[in-house]
Amino acid sequence: MFTSEYKIRVRYAETDQMDVVYHGNYAQYFEAARAEGIRDLGFTYKQMEALGVMMPIIELQCKFIRPAHYDDLLTIKTILKELPDGHRIEFLQEVYNEEGKLLTTGKVVLYFVKIGSLEKTVMPASLRQKLEPFFVADHSTK
Predict the structure, then answer these.
(1) Would you call 16 a catalytic residue per the annotation?
(2) Among candidate residues 111, 104, 109, the one with its CA nearest the CA of residue 26
(3) Is domain 2-135 classified as CATH 3.40.250.10?
(4) Model confidence over 78-131: pLDDT tens digits?
(5) Which residues, including other chains, have CB under 8 Å from residue 31's CB and lie 6 or more apart?
(6) DSSP state string for the chain
(7) Which of 16, 19, 71, 85 is flagged as catalytic?
(8) So where are the chain's domains?
(9) pTM
């Protein structure tokens, strides 16, 4: 399983009239956290595009448990439970406040597609190589 964490401070412009983060901003928070998680591996979305592959979102789910407010420092945890075996990749995301309270959960499903034709494809081999060590089964306990 691969996990990464990304921190962002809530800006005033991201809040609504109720003094909470506007729900539409979570898609941007999730995207930034996924991109930085990939960067933490030593790979970038820009490198993927140079290889002729992009990842459009095909599904986005959010569950809002507690509100986030202006100036809160949020931690967005990105979780990849399974190494993709085809064209589909699924990220789970969790947003925590500074006190460690869970605020929001999300699931984002993306497809690997070829730039230009938008044909489904598989994860670039160079990204797969970076992720594989996180999914190696530990056989030492058997």
Answers:
(1) yes
(2) 104
(3) no
(4) 999 999 999 999 999 999 999 999 999 999 999 999 999 999 999 999 999 999
(5) none
(6) -EEEEEEEEPPGGGB-TTSSB-TTHHHHHHHHHHHHHHHHTT--HHHHHHTTEE--EEEEEEEE-S---TT-EEEEEEEE-S--SSSEEEEEEEEE-TT--EEEEEEEEEE-EETTT--B----HHHHHHHGGGG----TT-
(7) 16
(8) 2-135
(9) 0.91
